[in-house]
Amino acid sequence: MTTISRLAIPDQNPVFGGNTGFNNSKYSPAVEAGGLLFISGQTGMELDGTWSADAERQIDLAFKRLGEILRLKGLDFTDLVEIETYHTDIPAHWQTFVAVKNRYVVQDFPAWTAVGTQLVRPGMIVEIRAVAALKK
Known about the structure:
By secondary structure, the protein is an alpha+beta fold.
């Protein structure tokens, strides 16, 4: 039987503020199962629940949020095995996205799929979903 463990963000977390948003939307920021950490899509949402119109700011915040989830589990970007990125306007933001991604993912590159799509809320530019290998 596989043990499933859901990550809760600590109160007053400087990146997320806490777990309230996840609880209100009834999902987990990450779920641990079968030696893997499945990380929900992370966006460039500000602590006040808004999104900056600046693409670089949003992309950077999405990677910071992803990095914080990894950190809370004792992991880092080298532990990623897969990322999926969802973009509202690939031609307009691609170079910025790659430049920001390359600041965070610098070695032990994960598998990566990028998709152009419409995201859930107006103003969102990017969403990053990931899977990481847990340390034994």
